[in-house]
Amino acid sequence: MAAADLPAVAAIAARVHPAFPERPEIFAERLALFPEGCFLAEAAGEPAGYALAHPWTDGAPPALDTLLRHLPERPDCLYLHDVALLAAARGSGLGRALIERLRALAQQQALPRISLVAVNNSQAFWARLGFQVATRGDLAAKLASYGGDARYMTRSCSQTA
């Protein structure tokens, strides 16, 4: 992903996640802080989805639509901020390919796991990719900005997607 892709990323986010709007500067900041974790997926030469991830602290998901300002000095996971695929790209294997790239990236960064917040009843999708719900009582307040069905999930980077 490059800065020139950010309008397409924002447009995809608005279509895929209308209930979870984020300001364009959120996407720009993630790209500026950790470009290695930002990917644009294309189908037939057109933007079809994206993934945004960055090193973070396990069990401390950032609130939705919040600037990070900086990455932690001692991250212990790769936090998957978002994966969004347009309807036409779903079922094409792009999602699995993006997760595999992120798994490899986490291994390169010596991060033992990937974490995310599953929304829109997507828990089953993430479970098929090896993610498991983390059942920790301290997560409820941290997930409040993501809606009532939000689940914090993690997976080991040693397993393939």
Please, could you describe this protein's structure?
- This protein is an alpha+beta fold and 161 residues long.
- It has helices at 6-16, 24-33, 94-108, 123-128, 140-143; strands spanning 38-43, 46-56, 77-85, 113-118, 132-133, 151-156.
- It has a six-stranded mixed sheet, sandwiched between helices.
Task: Please tag this protein with its features.
161 residues, alpha+beta, six-stranded mixed β-sheet, 5 helices, 29% helix
Quote the distance from N terminus to C terminus: 22 Å
3D shape: globular
Which regions have little confidence, pLDDT < 50, spanning 5+ residues?
A: none
Portion in beta strands: 15-25%
Give me the side-by-side strand order of the main sheet.
Answer: 1-2-3-4-6-5
**What is the string of helix and strand elements?**
HHEEEHEHEHE
Biggest sheet features: 6 strands, mixed
Structural class: alpha+beta
Give the structure's gist in a few sentences.
This protein has helices spanning 6-16, 24-33, 94-108, 123-128, 140-143, and strands at 38-43, 46-56, 77-85, 113-118, 132-133, 151-156. β3, α3 (94-108) and β4 form a beta-alpha-beta unit. 29% of the residues lie in helices and 25% in strands.
SSE diagram, text form:
Blueprint lengths: L5 H11 L7 H10 L4 E6 L2 E11 L20 E9 L8 H15 L4 E6 L4 H6 L3 E2 L6 H4 L7 E6 L5
Parallel strand pairs: 3-4
Antiparallel strand pairs: 1-2, 2-3, 4-6, 5-6
